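Good morning N.,

You mentioned wanting to compare the apo and holo forms, so I went ahead and generated the holo version with 5,6-dimethylbenzimidazole. This is what I fed in:
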Amino acid sequence: MAQTPATLDDFRAILGALPGPDTDAAAAAADRNGQLTKPPAALGRLEDLAQWYAGWRGNGRPALENPQVVIFAGNHGVAAKGVSAFPPEVTVQMVANFEHGGAAINQLSKAFGAKMDVHAIDLDRPTGDFTETPAMDDADVLAALLTGWNAVDPQADLLVTGEMGIGNTTAAAAIAHALYGGTAQDWVGRGTGVDDAGLTLKAQVVADGVARHKGGDGLDTLARLGGREIAAMAGAILRARVEGIPVILDGFICCSAAACLQAVAPDALDHCVAGHVSAESAHPALLAKLGKEPLLSLGLRLGEGSGAALAIGVLKGAVACHSGMATFAEAGVSAG
Ligand SMILES: O=C(O)c1ccc[n+]([C@@H]2O[C@H](COP(=O)([O-])O)[C@@H](O)[C@H]2O)c1
Ligand SMILES: Cc1cc2nc[nH]c2cc1C
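and this is what came out, ligand included:
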């Protein structure tokens, strides 16, 4: 069991000494892949996925039986600026919906055999409006990172991190603008469905926030511009790395959390795949910055882990073929 970090510098130290994949297991998986009853590369990206999964699980012929979906919810001070099409009370209302089994992610978790947990983080205490103050101080961002860290089941063999938070596409856009530059317009999108005036306002809010909170590393950016659910996703993604649990990333907000880790350690997301590209307009650019090719492109813009949960099915398919198929020798099929 990994030791629980106690300070932000403990998180930075973990990012500075990340475990890599098991190269023997990855080599065994590559060898096995070459013997399976199919023309070479006929299973396309499924073959790469299975070998990637084998390396991170330390097993050349792995099973995928215990996926975990964790949803974090947070409220955002910047929502008071009018940057969302929905009011902030929807965050707590949707948490109740998750808990009663009525949200999309409940259905998708069930459909793909994942256990699902929900963590609402201080919803009655929104983060600071980042156009005026840092969203979180060090104690707040540490607490949120630890919520994510502690939410991961070390027995899980796959993790999906999802979120719910009215206003969080504005926070995610601010993180991306701070980390990658460009203009605020490059990184804002319609989120829950703001109109053209809302989009213009959102770009101004992001520009103001990023101008106010310059400098620092990825964790500083996470604190100043992010949100509690975003920090919790970052903490969970990092814990998964330490436990050897592969991660499927979800949409724009989830990827902004991941980006803060990668900004500190360039290899921090090697145990992650991108589940999908969402319809949030800047998600393709963010995925490009992360160096991730999405598995699915279905026009989703829901969040709550939905696109990543769907991709559990793709990864399960990849692992089932890799570990269950017969070899040419076993099946008595002539190799080409
Ligand atoms: O995952 C995405 O790419 C995504 C894109 C647009 C909206 N969302 C969801 O919508 C909420 C944020 O939208 P907004 O307009 O309030 O910033 C939040 O609860 C997210 O889960 C999520
Ligand atoms: C209804 C609703 C459901 C959501 N799920 C994730 N983000 C959401 C935003 C809204 C507004």
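Residues 86, 90, 94, 164, 192, 302-304 surround 5,6-dimethylbenzimidazole (ligand 2) (CB under 6 Å).

Happy to go through it together on a call whenever suits you.

Best,
F.
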